[in-house]
Amino acid sequence: MVFRKISDDVKRAAIRLSERDLLSLQDILDCCGFSERTWYRVMKLWRETGDVINQPRTAPGRACHLDREDIDYLLQLLRDNPNYFLDELVDLTRTNRFISAHFITIFNELDRAGMSCKRLKRIASE
Length: 126
Hints:
By secondary structure, the protein is mainly alpha-helical. The chain contains seven helices and no strands.
């Protein structure tokens, strides 16, 4: 059988039919249109979590070391003096914000915030 999305309501209805012994397992599978493997996976999830959908545990990727205020601080520093090097920004965040972040982290956060070399050159020329 090919992958297809089975709605959560159909899964919950199938579980209710099974728990109340209204239909046999084969009739439930035929009625709802999913395989026995899917049924047992949904039932396992239902018993473990109380829900029929698998909730993501955490956000994907590594945790951010810099919050929005820290990024705003870095952006303000660069607006005031666009000639800062990354190692100087690391030192400033360490001494003024008490954050120990690698220069790659600062570079990535500035990149995500839309700060580019081109933009820094434009700020410096103003």
